[in-house]
Amino acid sequence: MSDLTRLTAADLADKLAAGEVSSVEATQAHLDRIAAVDGDVHAFLHVSDHALDVAADIDRRRSAGEQLGGLAGVPLAIKDVLVTTDMPSTSGSRILEGYMSPYDATVVARARAAGLVPLGKTNMDEFAMGSSTEHSAYGPTHNPWDLDRIPGGSGGGSAAAVAAFEAPIALGSDTGGSIRQPAHVTGTVGMKPTYGGVSRFGAIALASSLDQVGPVSRTVLDSALLHDVIGGHDPHDSTSLTDAWPSFAAAAREGASGEVLKGLRVGVIAELPDSGFQPGVSASFRAALAAMEAAGAEIVEVSAPHFEYGVAAYYLILPAEASSNLAKFDSVRFGMRVNVPGGTVEDVMAATRDAGFGDEVKRRVILGTYALSAGYYDAYYGSAQKVRTLIQRDFDEAFAQVDVIATPSAPTTAFKIGEKVDDPIQMYLNDVTTIPVNLAGVPGISIPSGLAEEDGLPVGIQFIAPAREDARLYRVGAAVETLLVDRWGGPLLDRAPVLGGTR
């Protein structure tokens, strides 16, 4: 493996700026890494044909003395839910196979403008519906820690690409945990920003009131650097916040000193008992809290009585919004079309959606359509929205007592591929700690907290902050990351056996 692929985005950016390495060299190293390992990992659905040309242009502009962005020349992986003009955008579905968008998603356009080099599009559960990336129409992605296990979902491709050193950073999307849960099971960092803090324009919609684009990386600083590039107001997105955001990279650098932990009030939810979690996950979580407490943090028990109803509310709200958003895939406007000789438009539409959508998408569309139907709207969708409001109030009351809330990022380590694919309820419960964050619209970050004793697989700790306090999460996340990495004696990913490490 090239030394260039082992560098963090921040370190690689420093070397590029200093002229110690060219963007072409860095990009070629990552393309070589993809060629070497992605046949096993399957993190990418499409690898760019233009990456080296883009990198060469960055090198030319830098040589000419042009002032470039801090991450200029750094390679970037892009979740296939984000549309791009130069690569297919399928959202992991057959119904969009080969689709070429006439425009870039705002976050992609901003990344290009900042000089990042798109490497390719990463695999995902179809239309972001899943917690394992097994529901991709193009086959599952494999966890670099154990190729027989899932890399999380729906953004398992982005997390696996970063964990396998195929890309230093990636773009993901998080509707109920699809950045943070893959980070948990792959030993990476995943940040779900405040709702509206990063543009959703050009992100193929699943549930518009829940979807949020965010960064995937190997360090908190790298996520912050990418967040600085993609964040901010976008007039193309009606839900985009007009706030003037601080530098998240500056917040992460400030947090790395560890001083932020002194006097930090960390909330632990009383209604989230250890009994619902794998023992190794609970043990790692408690150990991380103990380390924070030893560094000066105060651990405070807080109550969030409606937290436990988040999954039920989510799986009414999400399918309802998905059934509306996916109505556009009707065989008429774009996407695949199945011809039905002598059939009506309705016949063609039915045949196309039957052939183009996978089982999980069909399951959720049917559920959502039912929840919105006459006579059931108030009983199901309306009630779920009321629960959503109660969860938001729980967070408001908790944040009146603490600075951040901490939870395990997911209940278990990575499970075996195929283990839960036929049990959707168990799959849905895997997002029990991440879903309330999306329902409330607040930011959440998952960072590695260690390895579970029983299977040696990575687990993460999630920190949640009030809306618009994304910088607080970067400060706390970087402080805890520094604390834990020092305890481990080096980055957790260095111990992944599939990547040549030992654990």
TrEMBL record:
Domain Amidase intervals: 25-473
Keyword Disulfide bond attributed: no
Single GO BP term: translation
Active-site feature positions: K79, S154, S178
Assigned GO CC terms: glutamyl-tRNA(Gln) amidotransferase complex
Reaction catalyzed: L-glutamyl-tRNA(Gln) + L-glutamine + ATP + H2O = L-glutaminyl-tRNA(Gln) + L-glutamate + ADP + phosphate + H(+)
Domain of life: Bacteria
Keywords associated with the record: ATP-binding, Ligase, Nucleotide-binding, Protein biosynthesis, Transferase
Gene3D superfamilies: Amidase signature (AS) domain (3.90.1300.10)
Gene Ontology MF annotations: ATP binding; glutaminyl-tRNA synthase (glutamine-hydrolyzing) activity; transferase activity
InterPro entries linked: Amidase, Amidase_CS, Amidase_dom, AS_sf, GatA
EC number, UniProt record: 6.3.5.7
Quaternary data: Heterotrimer of A, B and C subunits.
NCBIfam families reported for this sequence: gatA
Family: Belongs to the amidase family. GatA subfamily.
Its biological purpose: Allows the formation of correctly charged Gln-tRNA(Gln) through the transamidation of misacylated Glu-tRNA(Gln) in organisms which lack glutaminyl-tRNA synthetase. The reaction takes place in the presence of glutamine and ATP through an activated gamma-phospho-Glu-tRNA(Gln).
Name under which the protein is recorded: Glutamyl-tRNA(Gln) amidotransferase subunit A
Species the sequence originates in: uncultured Microbacterium sp
